[in-house]
Amino acid sequence: MNESICVLPCNGLDKCAGDLSRRVALELTQSEEVELICPVLLNQNKTRYEKALAAGDLTVIDGCNTRCASKLAGDLDLAIKEKVNVSDVAKALDIKLGVEIRDDQDTQAVVREVLEKINSSAAEQTESEFIEPDSIEYNTFSHGKFIFKVPQSNYFFNENDCWVTISGNMARVGVSDYVQQNLSDILYVDPPEIGDKFEQFDDLGSIESSKAVFEIISPVSGTVVAVNVSLNDAPEQVNESPYEKGWLVEVHLSDFEEDQDLLHDCPAYFEFLQRKVAEIDV
Amino acid sequence: MSESTFMGVERDRIDWSPRIDFTKCNDCMDCVEFCPHQVFEVDENAKPKLKVKNPNNCVVFCRACSKTCGPDAITFPDKPETTKMIKAIRKAEKEAATDE
């Protein structure tokens, strides 16, 4: 783990959320270990920041969902270590930011919350209780130059291409080989919070490539007990091993029997996926 | 046909598609560019320009376009309600099939 961090904020000139990203970034740079990266200069001259980026982990602060800062990092192939979206934080606090730039109690509260989010390290997670199988056998089919893999058994899928595999009342959730090939190089995994309770088909965080953001649509209902922290440093594991090393979230199941009604087993998903890729351009 | 059903339920029986708040929409068309399923249509001569042309092309439970929306103008129906409805339709169809 690097000791220093580089902060790449939204440019923050025209809207309230952007202005708050700028304020958070300026607060952070009060610390000596933090280097501020100007998005405009970075875009113009990447080499200017090469040294700082090599020495420190990159934290990106997006103002809104346009995600200019994230997209810039993605376009320049910069690995993002941590990321926060000011508008999401404001929404969670039930604060409406609007367009106009202002400095009042509400905006100060958002700045504080964003800073706290960046400064607090990930919640402690307990030792994994999930028992991994020794080996997994796959079926494959090809479509054009693509080859798609689906496990032969013990995985269940929703039609949103997310999988779940079960061990007792614990389960792991991830995305299918189809998703990772569609997104190509995964640059960032945004995990849910430990302890979050969720229903079947709720979002369980997202994964992001330079092409797109993919919402993890949970195949089951339950509680988040762990996230795959090895993806912080190596999100490419989702590409290399989508069904095993690239698992995303470990959950405590609440009612798998009920959830199973809206899931495919491996052979059914294999057929579903074959139909799907035949119908749309991959 | 996987595109016209979701878990065996005909797609047009499931109410799942983006709703646009035109008081917030700024015509940036990021959603149109993002969605690979031709859910949206742009008519330069109309007002508003953006239209949800093919709601049934929208992937059930996907809300990804709303995450690309800077002004946060896109919302979707309630997920648990939608899940309940899909399960109810499946159950009714199963029962109808066993009655025959």
From TrEMBL, chain B:
<protein>
    <submittedName>
        <fullName>Ferredoxin family protein</fullName>
    </submittedName>
</protein>
<dbReference type="InterPro" id="IPR017900">
    <property type="entry name" value="4Fe4S_Fe_S_CS"/>
</dbReference>
<feature type="domain" description="4Fe-4S ferredoxin-type">
    <location>
        <begin position="48"/>
        <end position="79"/>
    </location>
</feature>
<dbReference type="Pfam" id="PF12838">
    <property type="entry name" value="Fer4_7"/>
</dbReference>
<dbReference type="InterPro" id="IPR050572">
    <property type="entry name" value="Fe-S_Ferredoxin"/>
</dbReference>
<feature type="domain" description="4Fe-4S ferredoxin-type">
    <location>
        <begin position="16"/>
        <end position="45"/>
    </location>
</feature>
<keyword id="KW-0411">Iron-sulfur</keyword>
<keyword id="KW-0408">Iron</keyword>
<keyword id="KW-0004">4Fe-4S</keyword>
<keyword id="KW-0479">Metal-binding</keyword>
<dbReference type="InterPro" id="IPR017896">
    <property type="entry name" value="4Fe4S_Fe-S-bd"/>
</dbReference>
